[in-house]
Amino acid sequence: MTAVDGSVVQLRAGGTSIIALVDAGRLPRIVHWGADLGELDDAALAAIVLSALPAIGDSAVSYPQPVPVLPQLAEGWLGRPGLSGSSDGTRWAPKFGAATTSVDTRDGGQVLRSDAVDAEYGLSLSIEIEVLASGLARQRATLVNERGESYRVDGLELAFPVPVTATEVLDFTGRWSLEKVPQRRPFHIGAWLRESRGGKPGLEHTMLLAAGEAGFGFQSGAVWAVHLGWSGNQVLAAERMPSGVQHLSAGEIILPGEVTLAAGERYTSPWLYGSWGNGLDELAGRFHETIRAWPQHPSRPRPIILNTWEAVYFNHDLDTLSALAEKGAALGVERFVVDDGWFLGRRSDRTSLGDWTVDPAVWPTGLEPLARRVRELGMEFGLWFEPEMINLDSELARTHPEWIFDAGHGAGIPSRYQHVLDLGHEGAYEHVRDGMFALVSALDIAYIKWDHNRYLLDAGHSPSGRPGARVQTLQAYRLMAELKEAFPGLEIESCASGGGRIDLGVLAHTDRVWPSDCNDPHERLEIQRWTGLMVPPEYQGTHIGAAESHTTHRIHPLDYRAEKALWGHLGVELNLLEEDEATLATVGSWIAFHREHRGLLHSGRVVHADLPNAATRLQGVVARDGAEALYAFSVTERPANWPPGRVTLPGLDAERSYRVNPVFPGTPLPEGAVVPPWLLSGVTLPGCVLGTVGIEAPSLDPDTSVLFHVTAVDA
Ligand code: DGJ
User: Which CATH superfamily is domain 606-712 in?
Assistant: First the structure.
């Protein structure tokens, strides 16, 4: 960190530099965010700032560039405002000044703090800009109303600038069972917005909003991306002004009156994260490293899961689920999770959400005998909940209809026959919390699958009808935190009809996400690699599903289903009771292979090759010390150009020599495979050859793959 006359600050950590201008009492203005530039001396820092100042032509709005991380209309900014709010129509055009700046080190990174005031408006603002040890950057702001009259905050959006060389925007969309579909577009003048207005990020949520050099890929092309660590309503924007200023920004979408500050009250924005890299793998690596450095990052091996959902759906009974648990344990499963269908009257998805007691009609002796059996078999016991939801056909809705969100037009339209329980009512919160606490305690539950299947639409808090979406998100966090505090070691999975709630806000309270309800490996390959831009493999639930996918009805060989599930936190979602012995043995082999390699899979660097053949994929995980790696070469379509040619194995140490062996944890070779000569014996090559020239790939049928196990031979 360096300060020049108190006017320029350089933050450095993890291969990232941020250089910010903090002169004239103004808010911080980032003039560089990206590659580490080394420790710059005072003269160089001053020169960087000088050389970053633009020419201002006639008739241009002479906005004093560079632009602060909280852009302000009062300073001439004509784009999205950093702070929107007012006191009944006054104090609406803030202008913060008299900023004082300090810089500190924190956990191996560096943080700049800027404290500014708008004396005329009686508002104060603190901004933190931090570069974490991983090189991931983040910022947040705290606004305080220093005056007697209340101040209504309508939005607070912070921005990271990106250079004009970033000409392409990448973001993601999706829907149920098809999350994280990428879309690319030129970075045009204007604002490209991705909004979540359903009280959670949602299935179509972009998760990351990225901008990079034309054609950036996984291995090359500078690229920057932002993410908001918040599980509620939000907006992410890629905004380019005619002046050439362009930035990536985000903030909460705050509904009317959700944040109204009385005298002395404060609002703190969620963290806005920013990552960059030469290629997406480096960008993703900064997120992974950050998450892996969290104190709550799971340190023990991720237990292999058997989930009952696609195995039996609502058809629960003790004998069937005990038999399923026995089959799973015999194959090496370590955690048995009872999904939806266990609570009062829940025979379908039409009833009972909110009634969190075990259904005596289906479980006459309760869930204890099953939980006990699961533990006898050496497994942990997990249970599904959907704590924020309610069915109109439930005891809870009949007793407390006022706990259902209502903005003035009743309960609103159902989705999956359900409505949202307003946890802003302390009684509703306690009802759910007490029900969950009782079960977690009685059944010694090790794992909760926490679902969320309806968007919050007109989510009004009764009786006023005022918006309750923001409080709902905070109450969900609170409930997760209370559970974790009361039951140390309890793990929680964030599921929202699949990948509808994946963000660093909820991840701070959970241990796993469910990227999609689609277990079809053809789709999972894409969903997982894009979700993996932020979420490390050990947090991504990846399950071996049925031969015929329940969501796409494609049929896939077991090896392909298992290989695509290998790369995350492995689970099985098959009805093992209906599978033949050969299938069970193969599932067992894949489980054993995962157990053998999960140390590598859950700690190594995730890599992808940029292959010219769009019908092929090469993914891998490389050990941090570069001594070992696993890769999968997959074919997704039948392309015109064939055979596929050579594929590179990225991430290896160029100076070392490696043995590459094909490995077949299931059946020996995919049916129909035509293999190049090296594949019959394995091959030894320098890392630089594997990383730049590559090795000939096998010709495979669509939706088949081959694994390569790579070990350094010079150690
Ligand atoms: C939606 C989830 O995404 C599924 O995995 C399953 O838990 C069902 N809900 C249960 O209703």
Answer: Golgi alpha-mannosidase II (2.60.40.1180)
Domain positions in the chain:
66-293, 305-599, 606-712
589 C-alpha vs ligand 1 centroid, how far in Å? Answer: 27
- Does the structural domain 66-293 have CATH classification 2.40.30.270? no
Q: For domain 305-599, say whether CATH 1.10.1740.10 is its number.
A: no
Q: Give me ligand 1 centre to Cα 497, in Å.
A: 6
Residue type, 527: I
Ligand 1 center to 178 CA (angstroms): 14
Testing ligand 1's pocket by substitution, the residue of 339, 388, 519 carrying the most ligand atoms inside 8 A of its CB is 339
The residue ranges of the chain whose pLDDT is under 70 are 1-6, 57-64, 715
Residue 484, marked binder: no
Tens of pLDDT, residue by residue over 570-585, are 999 999 999 999 999 9
**Residue 450, marked binder:** yes
Nearest protein CA to atom 3 of ligand 1, as residue: 497
Exposed / middle / buried, residue 349 (Cβ in 10 Å: 0-12, 13-18, 19+): middle
526-538 core/surface letters (b: 16 or more CB in 10 A; e: else): bbbbbbbbbbbbb
The pTM of the whole model exceeds 0.85: yes
**282-318 pLDDT, tens digit each:** 999 999 999 999 999 998 999 999 999 999 999 999 9
Q: Which atom of ligand 1 is nearest to the CA of 349?
A: 11
